[in-house]
Design goal:
about 90 residues, 3 helices, 4 strands, alpha+beta
Length: about 90
């Protein structure tokens, strides 16, 4: 799957990594629902770090369609909330 982090670029992620990412996504949802800003920042950073660590960066000139778009690292809790689906940021 091709994932874009807004403001950074795209990475290719193997579907097997989504189990780990979904755990962080579930934690992020809980923190957002409870209004835990510090927890949100920590978990959101961990989620983006995991995408970067597990993914293979695509060249800057690659224009592949992104199947998943994640907010920029400096996105606020409200900006992230606007991008959520029923499943969170990560589908599944």
């Amino acid at each position: 799957m091709i994932v874009r982090i807004m403001g950074e670029g795209q990475v290719k992620l193997d579907d097997a990594h989504f189990i780990e990412l979904n755990k962080l996504d579930d934690e992020l949802l809980d923190e957002m629902e409870s209004g835990d800003e510090a927890g949100f920042r920590r978990t959101f950073g961990a989620l983006l770090d995991s995408v970067r660590r597990l993914g293979t960066p695509l060249p800057d000139d690659a224009l592949e369609p992104s199947e998943l778009i994640l907010p920029a690292p400096d996105a606020s809790l409200e900006e992230v909330r606007e991008m959520l689906s029923d499943d969170g940021l990560i589908p599944g």
